[in-house]
Amino acid sequence: FTAVDLIRTKRDGGALGPEQIDWLIDGYVQGRVAEEQMAALAMAILLNGMDRQEISRWTTAMIDSGQRMDFSGLRRNGQRLPTVDKHSTGGVGDKITLPLAPLVAAHGVAVPQLSGRGLGHTGGTLDKLEAIPGWRADVDHDQLLRQLETVGAVVCAAGGDLAPADKKLYALRNVTGTVESIALIASSIMSKKIAEGADALVLDVKVGRGAFMKDQAAARELAETMVALGTDVSVATTALLTDMSTPLGFAVGNACEVAEAQDVLAGGGPSDVVELTLALAREMLAAAGVDEDPADALRDGRAMDTWRAMIAAQGGDPHADLPQAAVTETVTAPRDGVVTGVDALEIGMAAWGLGAGRARKEDRVLAEAGVVLHAKPGDTVRQGQPLATVHTDTASRVESVVQRIHTAYTLTNTQPERPVARDLILGRVVA
Ligand code: URA
């Protein structure tokens, strides 16, 4: 083959054969296919799509560019431990992994969460956990296995040998306007998740202003594509479509999200965070064949015990005070009204502007930075009442962010005819 011929095939709306895809992915990792050729191909794929067979082979080729993890030997008390993994396509205030991983692990299921860092307006699970003094994201393979057998949950950074073709391709897509392709997103996410080697996978596919997928039809197509990819390789995969038009919970940032996750683990916390944590936990437990109600483990402290063990196993002090911001400012309602919307994208951008996220991979994030909301859709506010408090390190970051917070809030003068209700879980996709 030649790269140019294969680019022409996709440009003209044709399909690539299995050997052609293997050759392309291998050639790209080895450097025989140049960056500019892969960029042109990615654009042709974004414009013309890939069929199911192409996406499936593309995913397998990216998995085969690296190592697959194997958890089949995990044992506790002589019994094989089932493994279940969760993936979210990314949102604002999405701290669900923090309470979810220990909650599911508290039921005797191993949860290996290989997670990422934030880029752009969505946060990263590792950045959030690094707000905990001492906590380390780097866990070697032996510790990963040991921690799964003892504690049951690990949240850590993925090693470089997990789908390296995807790492290279994702970096290229980020700078060539080719991220927003369902075929490329589905194969990117699923190559990493399948290589992680869990028995089952639960996907949280976000929909709305704060998500990649702005409408339900696109989110459903992405979910169906990913569920099919998992099912093809015998990883039991289900997906929930969930709302990301409004941030999850009240806290958006790093340390403040850890604090909110701990509230959930203590049996309290915002109702939307609790609802989604329990919905995903039920999916994960069902996939592992466990017939128990996860709400019990939030009430009786088992999930909190597992959280503390998980944090301590990675060097963190679960009882330490979390970093506090040097500068805080409270944004207040400009007039009386009813909150009918809090735009997740604006709030995510605000948290980013405060230092909670990064613009380039090598940037450092501020643990103490973030936005804490005081009013959510449905709340009635009086003029001067707090809408949100911003947390950061320097006053100069605050000004532009305050405007974003005002933009994020939609206030109406009159009580809406129907109550402002949020449908958090919009759909479920199974094979
Ligand atoms: N997350 C990924 O891992 N890959 C994508 O392509 C998009 C989001």
From TrEMBL:
Family annotation (InterPro entries): Glycosyl_Trfase_fam3 (IPR000312), Glycosyl_Trfase_fam3_N_dom (IPR017459), Glycosyl_Trfase_fam3_N_dom_sf (IPR036320), Nuc_phospho_transferase (IPR035902), PYNP-like_C_sf (IPR036566), PYNP_C (IPR013102), Pyrmidine_PPas_bac/euk (IPR018090), Pyrmidine_PPase_CS (IPR017872)
The GO cellular component terms are: cytosol
GO molecular function of the protein, one example? thymidine phosphorylase activity
Q: Write the record's keywords in alphabetical order, separated by commas.
A: Glycosyltransferase, Transferase
Signal peptide span: none
Any keyword Cell membrane? Answer: no
Positions of the Pyrimidine nucleoside phosphorylase C-terminal domain: 338-412
- At the top level of its lineage, which domain of life is listed? Bacteria
Q: How does it assemble?
A: Homodimer.
Q: Which family does it belong to?
A: Belongs to the thymidine/pyrimidine-nucleoside phosphorylase family.
Q: Any idea what this protein is called?
A: Thymidine phosphorylase
